[in-house]
Amino acid sequence: RVAAHKATSVVIMMTEIDTQEKESGGGAIVDNPATIRTILALRNVIYSNGWASDTFNSALRVVAHLDQGCKFFNSMDIIAPDGRQCLYGQDMSLAVNTLLFYCAGKPGLSRVIIGLLNFEGQAFRCRPSWQIKGGPNNEANWCTGKTVRDAMLNNCWGNAVLVGCDDLAQKANSNDGQGQGIAADPDYVIKRTDVLIFISTSSSPVVSKDVAGLRQMLDEEAKPLVTMNKMQTSILDTAAKAKILKTKPEQHVLVLGWRPEWNATPQRFGNRLKDIASGLPPGSTVTTANDMAHEDMAHLMSVLGFENVDEPKTSLVAGNVPLGTPLPGGTGDSSESSTEHSPEKTVAPEAEEDLPSAWIIPGTSITFDHFSANPVNYLELRNVFFNKGDFNTAIVLGTVGGERLPSHTRDSRVMSMMLELRAITMERGEVMHIIAENMVDQTAVLALGPQTGIHSFEPDFVNTQAIVARCIAMNLGYPFMWEALSELIMPGTKSPEVEFLEPVLFGLVGQKTSFGAVHRALLQLTNGRGLVVGYGMRGSFTLNPNLGTQIEWSKHHRIVAIIRRGFV
Fold first, then answer.
1. φ/ψ of residue 118, rounded to 5
2. Is residue 141 packed enough to be buried (19+ CB in 10 Å), middle (13-18) or exposed (0-12)?
3. I need a surface site. Which of 178, 402, 428, 500 has the fewest CB within 10 A?
4. What are phi and psi of 349, to 5 degrees?
5. 524: which residues sit within 8 A by CB, 6+ positions away?
């Protein structure tokens, strides 16, 4: 009745029904049942209504939102007469989880990613090269025939930053950094039909009115920045990230909650621990607190191949330290009045002997440990601090391992845990950076968390629904650009990453320099593999201001950059 076989773009979002059917059917139903039925129904409609080269919509693209991974998804293919695959599955739980855990080492990352995936303001956009003007004379099709490096440095745009390109003809895989994508091969020669990827407020970049003046200013201001940076570090060096991390203070990350999908695919949990560790300085730790028994976590670590710390310690079962007991390092009131509201009698902690208490996250020096505790029980969570007591970052998940919770329940859990953390850190006189997920927009406004400190980042809320909606819309509307952008959300080896650089690397502290000069300096230093896309402080960022915008840099500023390391 809706002529689905004539559609150009189709999005399938049946995840709510998938969850309902999965819960009602127990283990008798596969993952994504309603989504699978819908795909098969659409496939039948398309193939039963004249599948032929002269009637098939050559631009058809079908995107299915998956709440769980589906190993046999590709067997439901929808193939065009020319052999092109038209069906694409998008497991957004992986994208959301990855972003959440990367935020531990990169405060503010969620704001940058959500902003760049927006369809308003400064955001990722794309257009074929032949449709774009550029260069000192504002010529149409100017980028065609230029190398990516030349196009990035000399396009003369005043309101846009070129970040990459995509070859529509060959569709080379950008994951290896050799072909197309973001911050990819600087020597690649742009063809007329290539899609250029840029950040701008519109889909048509505009050449600056004062081209000569702008280029001269940027060149003069960028030159000393390049010299200063070369004296301190090589940003593109594969070891540069580790060198920078060594200068940062230790982070001790507390992860509250558990994902249901980790039960079925433990490797995903291991990958998330590696995501956190990749952005943490030496000496940092990661701790989980959830309902999983310690012996079960020990078995899981063994399955994942995590090595035990040399000297296992006794593990404490959380949940029974008296409320009036001062927390280590804190200023808790130990008077009798502070225990009046305790709902139950408390006793000394119980010990679980002969269990490994900590593990090394593979490929790093970061240690991981686990507490069996209900994170929405204040006494149990407080006891985690009693035993560990040095957390300065928390990742707050609204999900649990045993069941799938409704959106409002997940958000209620998040707000409750944040209030508990606020009470505990106030008692200790400490600050904490919060990374939390929210299903409802208002949760980020209403939630009240720990104090962050005068120069610390505000809480990072990863709006699950907003991420899902924007990623699916981007995939549907800009399919070729999406394949490149997905690397930013789910990075792999040699993938581009969003980085936050300190102004001191360029000698900018106390200086007034244009945004465009910093952008130009990083391009030159990294041979086109590094792009400045914004700046800010305390988690508030300005993305891609006008290149001539003058900024008075302080030590609290952060430079937002996209860098693809591993190439010299």
1. -75, 165
2. middle
3. 402
4. -60, 145
5. 153, 222, 226
In tens, the pLDDT along 448-495 reads 888 876 546 678 888 888 888 888 888 887 777 777 777 887 767 678
For 332-395, the three-class secondary structure string (H helix, E strand, C coil) is: CCCCHHHHCCCCCCCCCCEEECCCCCEEECCCCCCEEEEEECCCCCHHHHHHHHHHCCCCCEEE
Q: 377: closest CA among 289, 285, 287?
A: 289
DSSP 8-state class, residue 85: B
* Residues 487, 38: Cα–Cα separation, whole Å: 28
C-alpha 286/C-alpha 142 separation (Å) is: 50
Question: How many helices (H) does the chain have, and how many strands (E)?
Answer: 16, 25
- Would you state the pLDDT for residue 26? 59
Sheet with 307-308, edge to edge strand ranges: 307-308, 358-360, 367-372, 285-290, 252-256, 393-396, 433-438, 460-463
Amino acid in position 150 = D
| Strand-by-strand arrangement of the 496-501 sheet | 496-501, 558-564, 530-537, 540-543
- Summarize pLDDT for 174-204 with one digit per residue, the tens: 444 445 788 878 899 999 989 999 999 988 8
- Per-residue pLDDT at 567: 56
Mean pLDDT of the chain: 81
Nearest to 562 by CA among 223, 264, 52, 177: 177
The answer to whether 434 and 414 are in contact (CB under 8 A) is no
Nearest to 30 by CA among 5, 66, 65: 66
Which residues, given as ranges, of the chain have pLDDT below 50?
A: 171-178, 231, 312-324, 327-353, 455, 568
Question: By the 8 A CB rule, do 449 and 430 touch?
Answer: no
The CA distance from 347 to 345, in Å, is: 7
Q: Which amino acid is at 3?
A: A
Look at residues 550, 546, 523, 519 and name the one whose alpha carbon lies nearest to residue 533: 519
Give the per-residue pLDDT at 202: 87
SS3 assignment, position 272: helix
